[in-house]
Specification:
Layout: E1 2-4, H1 8-21, H2 32-43, E2 50-54, H3 60-67, E3 72-77, H4 82-95, E4 101-105, E5 118-124, H5 133-143, E6 144-156, H6 179-190, E7 194-195, E8 209-211, E9 214-225
Parallel strand pairs: 2-3, 2-5, 3-4, 5-6
Antiparallel strand pairs: 1-9, 6-9, 7-9, 8-9
Helix pairs in contact: 1-2
Length: about 240
């Protein structure tokens, strides 16, 4: 399944769904579009499912998963802030128990986790920032259990928008994916038994995101780990 964020109405609808769930929101309003899709997937998982957030950043997604009752959540990122570490400690003190998620510093394309060890892998708005796509997909395919799910979202616009003319404030490479690049990513994923049920890419409409002098939107892709050519229906 591939979705493209096309209007503010989609964001407001996503926030409405999350409000009914009562499990909080993402600090970035637009990313609640992603979070609502993640929430849809979580509904179909057992509470003891192993969840990995690749490029966990400020741990917003991990916290959301924990509020949904999941108890085995891990986040990996090149940099884990002291603030996030302190929030973990505060949570442990407040609840007088271990925190239901762990934060590990490391390269998301080359982790030390055992193969076939996660039911659900999330990578929200990360791969556009200098991540080697082949290495990322290979690692995600290795880590997922059979019939496990990979959720990926990224910056997107069609036709292609070049970013070489603007410096990235994050100090990383920045790529706004085009339709051709997304199609290439989907084909590459098949090499690692990651398949999408419907590969059609919706057209772009409104430039929902304006950052660093560029206007674009978001795209999400949901893969299933399978060793056959038939992709199991997700929902």
């Amino acid at each position: 399944m591939i979705k493209v964020l096309r209007s503010l109405t989609e964001v407001e609808r996503a926030i409405g769904v999350l409000q009914k769930e009562g499990c909080g929101y993402h600090a970035d309003r637009l990313k609640n579009w992603d979070l609502a899709q993640i929430n849809d997937i979580l509904r179909g998982l057992e509470k003891d499912a192993r969840i990995l957030d690749m490029g966990c950043g400020g741990s917003e997604v991990l916290k959301f998963c924990c509020r949904r009752g999941f108890v085995d959540c891990v986040g990996v990122d090149l940099s884990i802030s002291l603030e996030d570490r302190l929030k973990q400690v505060q949570m442990m003190i407040k609840k007088k128990t271990w925190t239901p998620y762990r934060l590990l510093r490391g390269d998301l394309t080359k982790t030390n986790f055992p193969s076939n060890s996660f039911d659900f892998i999330i990578c929200l708005s990360v791969i556009e920032h200098g991540v080697d796509i082949n290495s990322f997909l290979r690692e995600a395919g290795r880590l997922l259990k059979s019939e496990g799910i990979l959720f990926v979202s990224a910056d997107y616009w069609e036709p292609k928008i070049l970013t070489s003319d603007v410096p990235n404030p994050l100090g990383l490479n920045w790529n706004i994916f085009s339709k051709k690049e997304i199609q290439g990513l989907v084909d590459m994923a098949k090499t690692y038994d990651l398949r999408i049920q419907d590969e059609d890419i919706p057209p772009t409409k409104d430039r929902m995101i304006r950052w660093n002098r560029k206007g674009y939107t978001a795209i999400s892709l949901i893969f299933t780990k399978t060793g056959s050519t038939d992709t199991k229906k997700l929902f």
